[in-house]
Give the backbone structure.
Amino acid sequence: MTMRIFVPGDSGALAVGADAVAAAITAEAARQELAVTLVRNGSRGLYWLEPLVEVETPAGRVAFGPVAPSDVPELVAALADPSPRGEGPPRGGGGAAPFTTHPLYLGLTEEIPFLKRQTRFTFARCGVVDPLSLDDYKAAGGLKGLTAALALTPEAIVDQVTQSGLRGRGGAGFPTGIKWKTVLAAEGSRKFVVTNADEGDSGTFADRMLMEGDPFVLIEGMIIAGIAVGADHGYIYSRSEYPHANDVMAKALAIAERAGLLGTDILGSGRSFSIELRIGAGAYVCGEETALLESIEGKRGQVRAKPPLPAIKGLFGAPTVINNVLSLASVPFILAEGPAAFAAVGFGRSRGTMAVQLAGNIRHGGLFETGFGITLGALVDDIGGGTATGRPVKAVQVGGPLGAYFPPALFDTPFDYEAFAARDGLIGHGGIVVFDDTVEMARQARFAMEFCAIESCGKCTPCRIGSTRGVEVVDRIIAGRDVDANAALLADLCETMKFGSLCALGGFTPYPVMSALTHFREDFGLLPPNGRMEAAE
Ligand SMILES: Cc1cc2nc3c(=O)[nH]c(=O)nc-3n(C[C@H](O)[C@H](O)[C@H](O)COP(=O)(O)O)c2cc1C
Ligand code: SF4
């Protein structure tokens, strides 16, 4: 019998040697005469364990990790050894299989606490299936949502998405159902669906991981969106820094076309939908929806003034749904399982699950999909295991480069759009970047201003000029020049940028800057609110 072995082809796994591990397994299995079928799956999102090798057993898939090519001969020998030996488990009866004593053995994959504690709606198949097998996709529940949608009116589909409470996962948290309703009602001889796969936020990788691990779910979500709003063409706007995701996506689109999932007769329904993959050059501002549309149109990625909203006048002047990868990839679940199943999970007005991405200086970095409402502290300390360096956590930046820095004193904040906003923060695309006590927060504030200056599209003055002046002001503070006066000037400048900028790049840069200034005053050479300078005593 052939043994199925899974080695991720995900970029995160490839970066730590997954290809070499896969090659070693193939060679070693041939040498030891073990019949093996190697599947290049997506990642399960447990990045500190990559390359995570999984093996199918009668009891379920078991995992080993992180596996180096030098571990492979011993691993294959253990897998090839048919004799049950030793005490204990296992499920399925008999003695423990020899591989259970292998030093890299992690047990049943689904029982690994980091995975077991998750609620996976959007990433249910990621890391499980062969990403480019439509049969795998269907066997794991794929196309159920589209089949259900094909039997509904556009209004009924939009209604279900509205009832689910789904909010855009790209950062702003705008209700997806309302956006779709606007496009459905808008006049236009053509309409478009655009996936925002630009994923420029620091510490985020969920869109990439999904496109590499389960590309058909995005395709299915886009088709449902097209049917719902009356669009027959869609674009996926990805970035050049994602070569593997782009490759998988392109292959998946070709497979979907050949299978009649895309084209002029979707699943025999007589409906049409086609998708094009477009690759941007990697400007952060091209993730902003109107700059993205400009970029698809072949122009320089510069922000458009709103109104008109893209839902009314978007791509090539036509009504356009533009949604993040995760928003669209959440839709098949909603249509398949019903909006109530999605809405049953969550916190306040934040319904369903969020793909939290744990990054930076963290022990257990990876993707953790969970219902909204879990506290920031639980994510960082409990699930993430604290810092990788073992030093105390000093700050975490949530929501990308425009997100606030929170100190551990705010770790009781529930992961929820409104709860973060109430503390002058944002959850954005769900990225959490952890810093230990060696970070200098005045330098992080400078970095935020510098980032804005570099990435600014240049359209409005508060952002274009303000960010450059902001770098200079922070530099003066770091140099110890007129610290109080310059801190006041910085706060004033942030106020101008916040309320005077045309888009959130200039408008939200004040969040990291002001949070650093507010929560880490000592790092700016300022007295803390209690008037005592700890370091000076
Ligand atoms: C500077 C800037 C960068 C952005 N980058 C992204 C991005 O990379 N991906 C994304 O989905 N949304 C990004 N957004 C948000 C988009 O403008 C838009 O809100 C989103 O694509 C809407 O989709 P959603 O409702 O599904 O979130 C960015 C916004 C700004 C202001
Ligand atoms: S805030 Fe910055 S990025 Fe946004 S429109 Fe103005 S100049 Fe462009």
